[in-house]
Amino acid sequence: MLNQEQIKKIIPQREPFLMIDEVEEYIPGESCIAYKNVSADEYYFQGHFPGNPIMPGVLMVEALAQTGAVAILSVLENQGKNALFGGIDKLKFKKQVVPGDRLKLEVKIIKKKGPIGIGEAIATVDGKVAVKGELTFAIVS
Predict the structure, then answer these.
(1) What secondary structure letter does DSSP report for 44?
(2) Contact 56, 66 (CB under 8 A)
(3) Where are the domains of the chain?
(4) Which of 72, 96, 124, 141 has the least CB density, counted as fewest CB within 10 Å?
(5) Which of 8, 48, 108, 112 is catalytic?
(6) What's domain 4-140's superfamily in CATH?
(7) Active-site residue, 127 included
(8) pTM for this structure?
């Protein structure tokens, strides 16, 4: 289990844009399971949407990307680098995520070629799919 301080040693994101709270398990270069505890205090709920707070879908995707980045950037040769979006494919939003939800984030790296790779990503709340798809990443210095 990694806490936020340990996560910050692997990925470069910081508050308020660090979208994962803890890592349950990870295998460097292969997979990662992390969690985002969605709090009513999140900055984006002030405008998305007042009186009906819903976590923006793009931020759920960012949380998944950061989860995949933990797997990729924990590999020795990638330490100190950054993982950027190269593409998003087959993405489907299935469930709204609201304050009080615990978003489980799972990314499995399914393809790697040089600095480019693809991760199979799925986010769930209480076992129900909120979003799933494939994320392409590029490792940069």
Answers:
(1) G
(2) no
(3) 4-140
(4) 141
(5) 48
(6) Hotdog Thioesterase (3.10.129.10)
(7) no
(8) 0.97
